[in-house]
Amino acid sequence: MSWVFLRDLLSGVNKYSTGIGRIWVAVVFMFRLLVYVAAAENIWKHEHDEFECNIKQPGCENVCFDHFFPVSHIRLWALQLIMVSTPSLLVVFHVAYRENREKQHNQKLYRNPGKIDGGLLYTYLISLILKTGLEIVFLVLFYKLYNGFKIPHLVKCDIKPCPNTVDCYISKPTEKMIFLYFLVATSCLCIVLNLSELSYLIFKYSIKCYLKRHMKKHQ
């Protein structure tokens, strides 16, 4: 899979982000995207081929693998990475809309089209809420699908066409567990960063509105 489009998206968003937003972009790019491409993708690359059961009953391994891994970890992580990054497109599109308006009217309508104020502030806040919500949804989905954040060494399967309870072994469980914890931790870090940025922006513009009203009263 080519991740160039996601890299370009994150680079574009970085220009319009706050300081906390830039840290979020760095975490997503360095600790999630690069780790996924450089290491995690290869670890889970042959997960189905390396899943072994102690019986050669035709179809038994496939059914057991499908039962314990209904969705591939690595594909779910890829989907999560794409989904939590796409709300940032709202900000990019809003800035592009501002720039297009200035071109159409052939005059300066904004002091800085990329400055987070007015309508762009609401768009930015919506993107943060969506990113946070999607991160939480995917963490819950992981937990529900795999009965926790763990990779067992051995699973016992008694689903047809297996004739009895079969022992099935997962390859490289310790290595997979380490990366699982790392990716869950970075996802939690991103949630904290999004909530911090959301709180910062709301607090900053609440103070700004209060000072404006205070000045109007005195005038």
TrEMBL record:
Keyword flag Transmembrane helix: yes
Annotated Connexin cysteine-rich domain residues: 134-201
Membrane topology category: Multi-pass membrane protein
Pfam families assigned: Connexin
Signal peptide extent: none
Transmembrane segments: 21-39, 77-97, 118-143, 178-203
InterPro entries to which the protein is assigned, alphabetical: Connexin (IPR000500), Connexin_CCC (IPR019570), Connexin_CS (IPR017990), Connexin_N (IPR013092), Connexin_N_sf (IPR038359)
Keywords (A to Z) from UniProt: Cell junction, Cell membrane, Gap junction, Membrane, Transmembrane, Transmembrane helix
GO biological process: cell-cell signaling
Residue ranges occupied by any Connexin N-terminal domain in the UniProt entry: 42-75
Chief place of localization: other
Gene Ontology molecular function, alphabetical: gap junction channel activity
GO cellular component, one term: connexin complex
Localization (cell): Cell junction, Gap junction; Cell membrane
Coiled coil: none
Keyword Transmembrane annotated: yes
Gene3D superfamilies: Gap junction channel protein cysteine-rich domain
Function summary: One gap junction consists of a cluster of closely packed pairs of transmembrane channels, the connexons, through which materials of low MW diffuse from one cell to a neighboring cell.
Protein family per UniProt: Belongs to the connexin family.
Assembly behavior: A connexon is composed of a hexamer of connexins.
Name of protein: Gap junction protein
Lineage: Eukaryota, Metazoa, Chordata, Craniata, Vertebrata
